[in-house]
Amino acid sequence: MTIKVLSVASEAVPLVKTGGLADVVGALPGALAPHGVETTTLLPGYASVLAALNRPRAVHAWDSLVGTPARLLSGTLEGGHPLLVLDAPALYAREGAPYTDAAGRDWADNWQRFAALGRAAADIAGGAVVKRGKQQSFDLVHAHDWQAALAPAFLRFAPYGAVRTPSVITIHNMAFQGWSGPEVFPQLGLPPEAWALDGVEYHGGVGMLKAGLASADAITTVSPTYAREIRSATFGMGLEGVIVERGGAVHGILNGIDADVWDPASDPSLAVRYSHRSLDKRRANKRALEAEFGLDAGDGPVFIVVTRLTWQKGMDVLHEVIDHLVGLGGRLALLGSGDAAIERDLFEAAARHPGRIGIRVGYDEALSHRMQAGGDAILIPSRFEPCGLTQLYGLAYGCLPVVARTGGLADTVIDANPAALAAGCATGVQFDGVSYDGLAAALTRTVALYRQPEVWGRLQKNAMKCDFSWKASGKAYADLYAALIA
Question: Rounded to an integer, what distance in angstroms lies between the CA atom of residue 6 and that of residue 336?
Fold first, then answer.
């Protein structure tokens, strides 16, 4: 029996991306298909999404969807997977990023923009769309992060039709919760009983993520360790009580990566392609990366960073240890954007160390591939990391991860301690405590390993042989869906 799932999210590759959420949502339809799951993805109608649609068909319309006219367009994602796009020009046809304006400020009506997405999802799942005289419905709704989190609440408190469709919500990052003041509640179209501690009310306002966590039939996080961490005040971001209360409904399912896209043996972005059997070819990619970032050519290690420049990602600590990194003979190539003060500090460090530090502000997908292929190690000193994908890309490309021991980083990287080295299973370096001392010690240890070519080569081969494709995770999601439907 085919399970029909409506996957609801604010972004998905290749149509719109601000972070790892888009990679996961874009990969899920292909990952689930071998397990008998047909996934239809619902996205907001941003300009980039509408422009990518090839002869879209209007399949439904709302005179007022959370206060604005909207229509539903039908198309396909890459691979031929079904796509639905919520076309509401008043909400999505605007300059700027998906969640912020051109100045980087959150849109004031984000609550309405994503409440509409959740309401639309609940209507679609319940059979509001009729094709060829037949009501279209779904077996389950899978909501991603706060932007889609009201979908489970609408399904619970105000479902379309008589049958309530089960739902799953995935937490990609607990830090982003979608809170609004109490004045928005009357505009959501939810019944009065939804304004409750086990409903949408949160600290006197509407908590979108909290509403999803309280209403969904199951909660997943993107790694087993993060599923445990968010039960504590340190990582729960104020919602740890909800997670503890939901107990057995919380599951940790590790993210995967698209092994066809992230494969150094076939990657068209690289100067030279290679595999774990031809690691000597990586040198050409290292030389190309040095030239691209204006780094002095040399035999010392090149560390890379591909990330948002934020406190969560430990970028303030990275800035503190740059002099130590350079003193060890290392160089740094960094791609990212974010906090203006962190950007300024990093550029000042680059000015102190010409030829040793190279910085690109922004995001460039092809460049990130070239960095993984040319870098020796990727630094990920995150204070918390629900899963992380860049360390998985690093493993696939033999760019060894140097990671804080948290969340998905702890689940995916095997520390090169003496026991793991002796057993031949180490794949990177882990460290405790995102501080100057913690990261500096990890850098010192990494450089010491790098200076042992045979050891370093074994670590690279171990890393590249790891299987972090979606095969196992896709089955885990399919099994969870089947259990909920049953």
Answer: 32
Describe the crossing of helices 20-32 and 471-485 by its angle, rounded to 10 degrees. 70
Average of per-residue pLDDT across 454-475: 96
How far apart are the C-alpha atoms of 480 and 435, rounded to whole Å?
A: 38
**Beta strands 167-171 and 140-144, pairing class:** parallel
3-class secondary structure, 330: coil
Structure tokens at 413: 């990287």
Residues 350 and 348: their CA atoms lie apart, in Å, by 5
Q: Copy the structure tokens of residue 306.
A: 């591909």
- CA separation (Å) from 190 to 60, 118, 404? 22, 12, 42
How many Å apart are CA 60 and CA 78, to the nearest integer? 23
CA distances to 21, 30, 457, 475 from 34, in Å: 22, 8, 35, 8
**Residue 206: strand pairing partners:** 180, 201
* CA nearest to 100, candidates 110, 88, 91: 110
Strand order in the sheet with 37-44: 57-65, 68-76, 82-87, 37-44, 3-8, 140-144, 167-171, 218-221, 250-252
Q: What DSSP element (H or E) covers 87?
A: strand 82-87
Q: For residue 162, is pLDDT > 80?
A: no
Tokens 């292909």 found at: 30
The tokens of 106 are what? 């959150």
In angstroms, the Cα distances linking 208 to 144, 150, 165, 200, 323 are 11, 6, 19, 7, 43
Q: Please answer whether residues 465 and 23 qualify as being in contact, where contact means their C-beta atoms are separated by less than 8 angstroms.
A: no
Write out the two tokens for 208: 């979108």
How many Å apart are CA 326 and CA 334, to the nearest integer? Answer: 14
With vertex at residue 6, the alpha carbon angle to CA 46 and CA 130, rounded to the nearest 5 degrees, is 90
By C-alpha distance, which of 147, 207, 205 is closest to 7?
Answer: 147
- Kindly report the backbone phi and psi dihedral angles of residue 446, in degrees, each rounded to the nearest multiple of 5, phi listed first: -65, -45
Q: Taking all residues of the chain, what is their mean pLDDT, rounded to a whole number?
A: 96
- For 61-108, the pLDDT digits (tens) are 999 999 999 999 999 988 899 999 999 999 999 988 899 998 889 999
3 state SS of 389:
coil
Angle between helices 340-352 and 315-327 (to 10 degrees): 10
Residue with tokens 């389950």: 140
Residue with tokens 């509409």: 116
Which run of H or of E encompasses 153?
helix 150-157
pLDDT recorded at residue 37: 98
